[in-house]
Design goal:
four-stranded antiparallel beta sheet, globular, 7 helices
């Protein structure tokens, strides 16, 4: 569409447009007007009275893809999707985004931004009034301390509930793996630097901070060395890599999970273009493929008795013959027989990041069934659903599919990472009553809050 407006070097005209304009357009055209993850950024900014104008969208504090998507959803919602192509052609021809907006929309950029901000406030303020700010969860752990924006995310708590590992950015150049005290929230020490540590070169860090062994001492991570995926076992007490286990026959490894008896590690891996679950037995070094179908399978989590694994899949809603890929849902797989059964949750939104309760009778998970990602609980017997958090922004990891919650098995304690002020913080819930949750409200219409704004 913009090749005839190419400039020096033969690059198409679109290449001289700002990132928020192009990246945001890609996000909008990919996801459509409903995107709970982008709505999370918008809601956070409304709560802080920190909505950007066009000049702010190039700053690091404002994600160009998220805010660009929010901008395009508003423009397309008001003027129709046809205006997206018109604006692209006009802006690429001139290189002047502001001029293109005024020409095609017949509004000055200042008036356009004012209308956009007013629409976002009208959309998000009712949700903010009906939900809880991050500050309502008073056991705040690992607050940002200088990084802009702050990032403390994807906690993984030890079985005894005393320590946890998590990902944190303490400088613009690296995301590091840290050890923290789950009782006091104190940061104990840095374990690895994912960008600078030669022991951990290019770990698939966006998915998980790792999984603890039942000895409360060892953590397993996923890594890539010399182009091959591997599991890395770290001795937390000695702060050293104890073992590397390569898998040259597999593609990317994600979300390793240590079994309750300490003998097996489950993980998701790509092979022949398909993601399935695998089991690796440490004693005999045997690799076994647990799921066998073309549907996605990620985020395995062991039941306390070691007989069942909960995981995330699209097998219940995808139509592969039509290349119609569905939403993420939960399922259970029997470790002995590989038999897969669905674990019903909500009819809307995604359900991800399963974690078992200590008694093995329930699975905790994250869902955006109403447009905001929160922690829920489903009982295996009867399917009763309860809600543990009701945040204004949302429970999230580094990406929409990253690990965000972790449950201790030896005491009633839940850690989760939530979005706040353009970054992430780690929060804690303690006690059987808090982890039991309450009946979810009927605000399923909040899914439409992702429309940014409604048409």
């Amino acid at each position: 569409m913009t090749r005839r407006h190419s400039w020096a070097g033969g690059a198409p005209g679109a290449s001289r447009l700002p990132r928020w304009f192009i990246d945001g357009m890609a996000e909008y055209l990919s996801h459509g007007p409903v995107d709970p993850d982008t709505a999370m950024w918008v809601r956070d900014a409304v709560a802080r009275t920190a909505l950007p104008d066009l000049s702010d969208l190039g700053r690091r504090a404002f994600s160009p893809s998220r805010w660009g998507e929010a901008f395009w959803a508003y423009v397309a919602g008001r003027w129709g999707d046809e205006v997206v192509g018109d604006l692209l052609r006009t802006a690429a021809a001139s290189g002047d985004v502001r001029g293109a907006l005024e020409r095609e929309l017949n509004l000055t950029p200042g008036h356009l931004v004012a209308d956009w901000q007013q629409a976002l406030r009208a959309q998000e303020e009712p949700i903010l009034q009906a939900t809880e700010p991050v500050g309502a969860y008073r056991r705040l752990l690992v607050e940002p301390d200088g990084a802009e924006p702050g990032l403390s995310v994807s906690p993984s708590i030890s079985p005894d509930g005393r320590r946890f590992v998590y990902l944190s950015r303490r400088s613009p150049l690296s995301v590091d793996l840290y050890l923290g005290d789950a009782t006091t929230g104190k940061r104990l020490r840095r374990l690895t630097s994912l960008s600078l540590d030669p022991r951990i070169s290019s770990r698939e860090s966006a998915a998980s901070a790792g999984s603890w062994a039942p000895d409360n001492r060892h953590v397993v991570l996923a890594d890539v060395q010399h182009g091959e995926p591997e599991l890395v076992i770290i001795d937390i007490d000695r702060n050293r890599v104890e073992e590397r286990i390569p898998f040259p026959s597999l593609g990317s490894i994600l979300g390793p999970a240590w079994s309750p008896d300490g003998g097996t590690i489950a993980f998701a891996a790509m092979a022949d273009g398909v993601s399935n679950l695998y089991l690796y037995t440490l004693a005999d070094r045997r690799l076994r493929r647990l799921t066998h179908d073309p549907f996605g399978a990620v985020e395995p989590a062991w039941s306390p008795d070691g007989r069942t694994i909960a995981f995330v899949t699209d097998r219940g809603s995808s139509r592969l013959e039509d290349l119609d890929f569905g939403r993420y849902e939960l399922a259970l797989v029997d470790v002995a027989t590989s038999r897969v059964t669905p674990l019903p949750t909500f009819a809307a939104g995604k359900s991800i990041d399963p974690q078992w309760s200590a008694d093995g009778r329930s699975v905790l998970f994250v869902s955006d069934r109403d447009g905001v990602s929160n922690v829920y609980r489903v009982q295996l017997a009867g399917g009763r659903l309860t809600q543990l958090t009701d945040l204004q922004t949302g429970v999230t990891g580094l990406t929409p599919l990253s690990a965000a919650i972790s449950v201790a098995w030896q005491q009633p304690r839940l850690l989760f990472s939530a979005f706040q002020e353009g970054g992430n913080v780690v929060l804690r819930l303690d006690g059987a009553a808090a982890l039991a949750g309450r009946t979810p409200d009927g605000r399923v219409a909040r899914l439409e809050a992702g429309r940014l704004p409604p048409r």
